[in-house]
Amino acid sequence: MTTQGGPVTVREAVPEDAEEVTRVLLASRAAALPYLPRVHSDADTLAWITHVLLPGSRVWVAEGPAGEILGFAALDGAELDQLYLRPDTLRRGVGTRLLDHVKASSAGELSLYTFQRNTGARAFYERHGFTAVAYDDGSRNEEREPDVRYRWTAAG
């Protein structure tokens, strides 16, 4: 897969990626989810990525031709815990590339949560074979935003 600037590769994240991964997450959430309350500071988000997400999950980054991080995905057991893209890389195949990598690295099934109002993410996951299996009122997440649980299996 390539972007306008050249090939995109997927690799495992390393601790040195923490700041760039944080920038991707913050930019993505600001662009796609402007209605969400900010429940953590940028510094707290960086600390969480550095000390919790990267060491505690399987995390991959999609890298552009100059080594810039275009997006990332995190797998925690059978849970797709995070998948965020830089806003300027949407609809260029980067998310599909990351999701395909996560699927291939899974045990043949994945689940995830996304916010009910995040229609772009919901359409993306549904295009890639995920099925909505539960709807929640938001009491399970920090933002108190209603969400939906999706499930995917390799068997279909």
Word description of this protein:
By secondary structure, the protein is α+β, with helices and mostly antiparallel strands. It has four helices and nine strands. The chain has helices spanning 18-32, 42-56, 94-105, 119-127, and strands spanning 2-3, 6-7, 9-12, 58-63, 69-76, 79-85, 109-115, 131-136, 147-153. The strands form three sheets. The protein has a four-stranded antiparallel sheet with strand order 3-4-5-6, with helices on both faces. It has a three-stranded antiparallel sheet with strand order 7-9-8, covered by helices on one side. Helix 1 crosses helix 2 (42-56). The longest helix has 15 residues, at 18-32. It starts with a strand and ends with a strand.
Spatial sequence of strands, sheet with the most strands: 3-4-5-6
- Global outline: globular
What's the pLDDT, averaged over the residues? 93
Q: Can you write the helix and strand succession as a string?
A: EEEHHEEEHEHEE
Summarize the biggest pleated sheet.
4 strands, antiparallel
Low-pLDDT stretches are none
Radius of gyration: 15 Å
**In whole angstroms, how far apart are the ends?**
25 Å
Helix content: 25-40%
Percent of residues in β-strands: 25-35%
Number of continuous helical runs: 4
How many E-type strands? 9
SSE-based structural type: alpha+beta
